Structures are given as C-alpha cells and as structure tokens.
C-alpha cells in the first residue's frame, strides 16, 4: 500500500471518528476534562502523543498543553468552531501547510515551547480572525516572507526565545493591526527597521537579549502609537541622536545592560513624554549636568550597576521635575553625593542607594519632607558626627510608624540593616545598636570655627575700609588746597563749600570770615607785609571777636610771610 493509500485510510479514520464523536458527545478521552455546556476540553498533562479526535466537534476551547504531541496533520480539520487552541509544551516540529485552513473562528493560538524550526508560506492560511499568536521558545531560524499573509487582524505576535537572525523585507507588511511584537532573546544583528515601519499601530516592541550593536538614524521608525521599547541586554554602544526620534507616545524605554559609555542625552531629549527610563548596567563614567534634559515627564529612573561611574553632577536631574522614584544601587565607585542633588525634584518619594561606596551622607542631600522610602544599606559608612542626623531620623521614623495608623505616610528607612565600617570600634556594628554618644559629636570645635571665621571677616572688612579711606582723604585734602588757593588768588568764595567739605552749620560763619579777610586785603598792597597780626582795624566786623582763634586763612597768610621782612602798617588814604 502506497503513501497515498495510507493518507486515504487516515482521512477515513478521522471522518469516522468525527461522526462517532458527534453522536456521543459525552465521551471524553482518559485524563481529559470535557464540558459540553461550555464547549471546552482540557487534556493538559494527559500523556497524549496525538491530538484526540473524539472531542466535541463544536468545542471552542481546547487545551493540550504539556503532552508529547509531535504531529498536527489533519488534527483540527473538523473543529471548525475552535476559538482558542493551546498546544504549548509539546514536541511539534512542523506545523505543515494549511493545517488551520478550516479554523476561521480561531482568535488565540499558542504553540510555544515546541521544536519548530521554520514557518512555511501556508502555515497560517485560513486564520483570518486570529488576534493572538504565541510562537515563543521554539527553534525557528527561518520565516517565509508570506507566512503572515492572512493575519491582517493579528494584534499580538510573540517570536521570543528562538534563533532568528534577520527577516526578509516585507515579512511583517500584512500585520497592519499588530500592537505587540516580541523578538526577545534571538540572535538579531540589526533592528529590522524595514519591517517594523509597516506596523503603524505598534505599541510594544521588545528587542532585548539580541546582538544589536548600534541604533542608526531612524533605526526605530516613526511610530506614533509606540509606548514601550525594550532594548536591554544588547551590544549597543552608539545611539544616533535621531535613532529613536519621533515617538511622541513613548512612555517606557529600556537601554540597560548595553555598552554605552555616555548617556545619550541628545537622543533622549526628543522623547518628551517618557516616564520610565532604564539605563542600568552600562559603562557611564559620569552623569553630567542636564544628562536627562527635557524629560519633564520622567517618573522612574534606573541608573544602577554602573560600575565605572564615579561622579554625579549636582544639576543632573534639574529638568526632571516629575521624578518620583530613582534607583542608584550597586554603583561601587560612587563615594559621595553632591549637595542638594534631589532638591530640583519636588515629587521625589523613593530613593534607592544601596551597595555603593558612600562613607557619609548629609541631610541636605535629600528632600526629607517629601520622601516615603530611603534605602541606603550596604554602604561603608563612617559612623561619626556627620551621620547623627540619620540616626535620629531613623529613630523618629520608627516611633512614628508605631504610632501611625497609616504606615504609607511615614518615611521608611532600611537603617535596621545599615552597618558601620569605621571607626574601628564600630566596624560591622548595626546602625540601630549604636548609642547616640558613640557618634562623637562635640560643639567645641564648632564654636572655635565660628569665632575664627567671625574675627577673620571683621578684620577683612576693617582692612578694606581703611584701604579705601586712605586715598579718599588724600584726594579731599588736595582738593581743599586747590579750592583755598583759588579763593586766595581769585576771590572765588563759592568753591569753599565743596572744596573743604565743611559742615553746613559752620558754612555761614566761614563765609563771613572770608569776606572780612578779603575786605582787609583789598585795602593793602599786593604783598603780605600789611597783614600784621598786631594791627587792629578801626571798623571791626560785628561778627569778629578779639579773643577768638585766628581764622585759618589769616593763619595761612601769616605763615607765608618771609622771616627776613617786617610787616608794615597800611598806608591810609583819605578821600
């Protein structure tokens, strides 16, 4: 009997079995559970080697998971009402051609965890209403470019954990309704941009655990509905500044565990609606100012396991005004936190900084008033006076937690498992076991420092004042001399007020004295000989008093008379 005869007999057996099962619907194979009312049959873990043909032909849900089935030939031809089929965890190596041609009502097909190696051109012919297709955890290396030609309504496709390297151009073109695509854990070398561009409604793309080395310009094409992009655990070392451009709906982006040496600020800044960002496990050496520029909607940031990171700029997160949670664990070279690092993040509630190299912390580092959870264990803390604030805060939070009915409003600190490394007498001692006195806080050195600082400031101020006043006095003296000389020679009394800087209450008195001096000087010769101090004028000035001190200008005039000449009396002429 030839192979054609065997096929005919097999087909006859199938038809007879279907006819028999239709007349005896209550009959159910051993180890199976059948529910005719629900039109469902479950044969999970039933040690089956072939698909049972005696199930209810009107069944809509058949579960054959965890069996030893290796062949699907003509298995589902007469289950025309089937909507959900699960044949995962079997030994199927080939889906054949047109095996699902009569299953036009099927919406969900799970063939994961089998031994499939390829998908032929007509594998899914007839599944025009299929919405969910799971082909994960097989050994698929090749997909025909027309495999998905009938799956125009498909929304979820899982090809993860296979051995795919690349795709023929146009393979995904029929999948115009696809929303979720997982290509995780394959051997893909480049982002399949030419295929992804057809998935205009794609929302979720998982390319993690592959061998992608770079993201070229428009590597992720313009997909307006894309919300989730996962590229973790690849070999990415370069991201073009337009590599993930024009993804206005993107909320979740994962570039963790790649080979990036600097934060791709330029590329990230284009993702203005991003809320969750994962960059852990890369090789950043520093996080510079505005590393996350324009990410105003960022809520969760993961920057842990950055084993080369040793510096964080205090302005690194200033643009992230909606940041709520940040993970900074296992950054083993980070020894300090810059002051006020998180004070530009008013909504920050959770900070995780475990297993770093921090030796101390300051209260100014954190927005204590808004925090709900702070994890800092695993750091080599030096338990001295600088950590007393943390010790007190931990105790206060513990007391508040016992008193409060709503623990979610109380700050949680993992200080119960925080250990000290130094000083030597506290090495390995739990934070909570240390009495307050052991922190060695003393105000003496603070007082001395304040006094020294105050004295230094006073000396600096006084020195500065004296330094600037010296030239000022000299300048004023020179100006006074110039003004007086002008008065003596030209009789310009108007300059005296500004030139000598006398106070206003003496201004009139000085003016009268000068007038008197000029009046006397006008009746004598142009020499100073007539200024005899022993001479008294007949017409005395009513403002002049003999016992008063000589006027400064007269004094000046006397001092200028040469010693070898004798003053002469004025020559009086009567008119």
Q: How much helicity do the residues have?
A: 10-25%
CATH class of the domain at 34-211: Alpha Beta
Instruction: Determine the number of helices (DSSP H or I, runs of at least 4 residues).
Output: 8
Residue fraction in strands: 5-15%
Structure description:
Strand 10 (180-182), helix 2 (193-196) and strand 11 form a beta-alpha-beta unit. This protein is 21% helix and 12% strand. The strands form five sheets. It has a 17-stranded mixed sheet. It is elongated, with a radius of gyration of 48 Å. The longest helix is centred in the last third of the chain and has 47 residues, at 444-490. It is α/β, with parallel strands linked by helices and 575 residues long. Among the domains are: 34-211, Leucine-rich repeat, LRR (right-handed beta-alpha superhelix) (Alpha-Beta Horseshoe); 481-575, no CATH class. The relative contact order is 0.03.
